[in-house]
Amino acid sequence: MLKLHYSNFKNECGTDEAGRGCLAGPVTAAAVILPENFKNGLLNDSKLLSEKKRNILKPIIESAALTFSFAHIFPTEIDEINILNASILAMHQSIASLSISPEFIIVDGNRFKPFEKIPHETIVKGDSKFLSIAAASILAKTYRDAYMETIHEEFPMYNWKQNKGYPTKEHREAIRKYGPTKYHRKSFRLLPEQLKMPL
């Protein structure tokens, strides 16, 4: 069972992102503050759950949470500020949109920049240790997946509905055949041989 709190603060917010390693689409973060009595045996790191389980958990988290929010940072901005800064910015934007200001922030991973003057702690594999980070990981993943399914309609040949923008063999083959789209991250190595292309 994952733990509810890291700190002694009542309004502790968990935050996590999805889509950092993708070649296309936004990096998406979510922030969640759960109530004191929250319990859920199914809730875990989104990467350990099936799509079906994530979709079951999403409305449960949203109805139980004291407040939640998510934010997308799109490829043009990712290319400008780099993926790490974009991931942190997405987390900051999602925290800023919460209807309750958190007293403490717990962050999945080991990189974060202070948000306002709120104390924070980074926790490696935090999404498999704390309920609020796991909840944020599920919201970030499901909102990002829904966005990728929408843009799939515009460019079905990349099969984003299936690969969600991750660097699968099929996705790379489509980039090789059709070239990158406006949704691709131009600063990423879209094809393995990109470094060898004549300028």
TrEMBL record:
<feature type="binding site">
    <location>
        <position position="16"/>
    </location>
    <ligand>
        <name>a divalent metal cation</name>
    </ligand>
</feature>
<dbReference type="InterPro" id="IPR024567">
    <property type="entry name" value="RNase_HII/HIII_dom"/>
</dbReference>
<dbReference type="InterPro" id="IPR001352">
    <property type="entry name" value="RNase_HII/HIII"/>
</dbReference>
<protein>
    <recommendedName>
        <fullName>Ribonuclease HII</fullName>
        <ecNumber>3.1.26.4</ecNumber>
    </recommendedName>
</protein>
<dbReference type="GO" id="GO:0043137">
    <property type="term" value="P:DNA replication, removal of RNA primer"/>
</dbReference>
<dbReference type="GO" id="GO:0004523">
    <property type="term" value="F:RNA-DNA hybrid ribonuclease activity"/>
</dbReference>
<comment type="similarity">
    <text>Belongs to the RNase HII family.</text>
</comment>
<keyword id="KW-0464">Manganese</keyword>
<dbReference type="GO" id="GO:0003723">
    <property type="term" value="F:RNA binding"/>
</dbReference>
<dbReference type="InterPro" id="IPR022898">
    <property type="entry name" value="RNase_HII"/>
</dbReference>
<keyword id="KW-0378">Hydrolase</keyword>
<dbReference type="GO" id="GO:0032299">
    <property type="term" value="C:ribonuclease H2 complex"/>
</dbReference>
<feature type="binding site">
    <location>
        <position position="108"/>
    </location>
    <ligand>
        <name>a divalent metal cation</name>
    </ligand>
</feature>
<dbReference type="Pfam" id="PF01351">
    <property type="entry name" value="RNase_HII"/>
</dbReference>
<keyword id="KW-0540">Nuclease</keyword>
<dbReference type="InterPro" id="IPR012337">
    <property type="entry name" value="RNaseH-like_sf"/>
</dbReference>
<keyword id="KW-0963">Cytoplasm</keyword>
<keyword id="KW-0255">Endonuclease</keyword>
<dbReference type="GO" id="GO:0030145">
    <property type="term" value="F:manganese ion binding"/>
</dbReference>
<dbReference type="GO" id="GO:0005737">
    <property type="term" value="C:cytoplasm"/>
</dbReference>
<dbReference type="GO" id="GO:0006298">
    <property type="term" value="P:mismatch repair"/>
</dbReference>
<keyword id="KW-0479">Metal-binding</keyword>
<comment type="function">
    <text>Endonuclease that specifically degrades the RNA of RNA-DNA hybrids.</text>
</comment>
<dbReference type="InterPro" id="IPR036397">
    <property type="entry name" value="RNaseH_sf"/>
</dbReference>
<feature type="binding site">
    <location>
        <position position="17"/>
    </location>
    <ligand>
        <name>a divalent metal cation</name>
    </ligand>
</feature>
<feature type="domain" description="RNase H type-2">
    <location>
        <begin position="10"/>
        <end position="199"/>
    </location>
</feature>
